[in-house]
Amino acid sequence: MVKCLKCGRCCIETQMPLTRRDIERIERLGYRRWEFSVENDGKLKLRNINGYCYFLNPKNMKCKIYRDRPEGCRIYPVVYIEGGYVGVDDECPASKTVTIREICKKKPKLIKLLIEVEGLRK
Length: 122
Prior knowledge:
The protein contains four helices and eight strands, in the order ααββββββαββα. By secondary structure, it is α+β, with helices and mostly antiparallel strands. It has one domain (9-119). The longest helix is centred in the last third of the chain and has 20 residues, at 100-119.
């Protein structure tokens, strides 16, 4: 698994897509969809406030909903790349700790995530 450095870099200017399950889970926590998400190209993504993910506490760089964070956050730095590929986001300082084997194991989950996110288009 990724050896997260807890730097919060992945939560700065995030473009993280949200699945229906993500939205439902976060709404059950008491948040309203319009508070934490923004529509971009017909898809819902996490909202940024002053350049930080809506759920990131910039003082301690911790996620306010870590246990209930979106699926994309759970598998990061493994990301979907246009054209049906899976890769590792080089922006993540821990990206070198992810192996190709791990990426292959996670690809079905990423494809499922992509299908769900694509389903959120209006």
